[in-house]
């Protein structure tokens, strides 16, 4: 056994497979404020509680909202150990929708579905898997949905090298 | 002495289809950006964690998590495009074109590709921009289309 598990190579995904990823994660004020600021996102709705307490647009407002690109990164991250651990590259995202705002203290869970598979010349011995990934909050409301295309190693090309990838004395 | 406030951001009325923006500052990526983002989002793929593993596949170093590249490219575009408010509606046709490594510098630019009024929220319009992230060599690293509600002048508190 090497540094990645041998359960999520290209061959292990079948169209129609659905995965409910095990771990949820509570989003904290630290996550939102730190990444909003590290990403140079200047929208006050993410870091000015006084400003946001005075605004309400539908379900949006009343308190700071977690920056959408962190929500996207976190849901994709929660899915990653299962679907991207043996990935060589992320090449595309599409149809990303953020239906329900995420606020500090919300807990997110991720699910994935395999939509398609195709060959690629981008890397040798790998193929592209097309996933739909969704994120829900503690009330089961959809906070993120999107599709991604990921280049994943084929077992037949990489299993041996992966198993042997470990420092030698 | 007069007290001035420099107001940032653009309203719906300030955009027109075809308008181009070069966004401010540029930002050099560091190892710590990638470590914080990859670890705190639990994105467990060793190409973002382990330099020796990443080199096996032709990468020159640990790769910066592309979700952070998206986050930063979008972030640099916000003051020009969406700071004055309006919920983020969606992203389509995003491509990660080239890997980014610690030490690379990212710039962001955008063009307005669509504008329309919001039927349900008359104080807003919906604007779509195509935003690109390029590195210090001028090579494209990311491209995406983003849609936001954008407030009209005077519709949100300043």
What can you tell me about this protein's structure?
The complex is a heterodimer of chains A (169) and B (158). With 169 residues, chain A is of the alpha+beta class. Chain A has one domain (10-162): Roll (Thiol Ester Dehydrase, Chain A), CATH 3.10.129.10. Chain A is built from four helices and eight strands. Chain A has helices at 29-38, 49-53, 68-83, 155-163, and strands spanning 18-20, 25-26, 56-57, 60-61, 87-97, 107-119, 126-136, 142-153. In chain A, the strands form two sheets. In chain A, strands 1, 2, 5, 6, 7 and 8 form a six-stranded antiparallel sheet that branches. In chain A, strands 3-4 form a two-stranded antiparallel sheet. The longest helix of chain A is centred in the middle third of the chain and has 16 residues, at 68-83. The radius of gyration of chain A is 19 Å and the shape is elongated. In chain A, 41% of the residues are buried. Chain B is elongated and about 55 Å long. In chain B, strands 1, 2, 3, 4, 5 and 6 form a six-stranded antiparallel sheet that branches. The longest helix of chain B is centred in the middle third of the chain and has 16 residues, at 66-81. With 158 residues, chain B is α+β, with helices and mostly antiparallel strands. The mean pLDDT of chain B is 95. In chain B, 20% of the residues lie in helices and 32% in strands. Chain B has a domain at 17-29 and 65-151: Thiol Ester Dehydrase, Chain A, CATH 3.10.129. Chain B starts with 19 loop residues before the first strand and ends in a 7-residue tail after the last strand. At the A-B interface, helix 1, helix 3 and strand 5 of A face helix 1, helix 3 and strand 3 of B. Strand 5 (87-97) of chain A pairs antiparallel with strand 3 (88-96) of chain B, so a sheet runs across the interface.
């Amino acid at each position: 056994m090497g540094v990645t598990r041998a359960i999520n190579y290209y061959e292990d995904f079948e169209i129609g497979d659905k995965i409910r990823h095990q771990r949820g994660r509570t989003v904290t004020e630290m996550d939102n404020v730190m990444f909003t600021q590290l990403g140079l996102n200047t929208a006050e709705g993410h870091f000015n509680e006084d400003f946001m307490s005075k605004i309400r647009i539908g379900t949006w407002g009343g308190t700071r909202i977690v920056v959408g690109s962190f929500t996207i990164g976190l849901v994709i991250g929660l899915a990653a150990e299962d679907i991207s651990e043996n990935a060589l590259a992320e090449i595309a995202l599409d149809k990303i929708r953020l239906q329900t705002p995420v606020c500090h203290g919300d807990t997110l869970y991720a699910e994935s579905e395999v939509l398609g598979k195709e060959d690629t010349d981008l890397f040798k011995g790998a193929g592209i898997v097309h996933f739909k990934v969704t994120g829900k909050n503690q009330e089961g409301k959809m906070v993120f949905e999107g599709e991604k295309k990921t280049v994943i190693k084929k077992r037949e090309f990489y299993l041996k090298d992966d198993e042997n990838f470990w420092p030698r004395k | 002495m007069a007290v001035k406030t420099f107001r940032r951001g653009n309203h719906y009325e300030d955009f027109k289809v075809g308008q181009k923006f070069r966004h401010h500052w540029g930002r050099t990526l560091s190892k710590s950006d990638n470590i914080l983002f990859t670890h705190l989002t639990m994105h467990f793929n060793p190409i973002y964690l382990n330099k020796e593993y990443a080199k096996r596949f032709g990468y020159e170093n640990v790769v910066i998590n592309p979700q952070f590249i998206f986050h930063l490219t979008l972030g640099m575009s916000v003051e020009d495009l969406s700071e004055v408010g309006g919920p983020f509606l969606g992203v389509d046709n995003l491509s990660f074109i080239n890997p980014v490594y610690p030490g690379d510098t990212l710039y962001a630019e955008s063009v307005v590709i669509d504008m329309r009024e919001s039927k349900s929220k008359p104080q807003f319009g919906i604007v779509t921009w195509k935003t690109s992230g390029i590195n210090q060599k001028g090579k494209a690293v990311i491209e995406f289309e983003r849609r936001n509600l954008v407030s009209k002048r005077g519709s949100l508190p300043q």
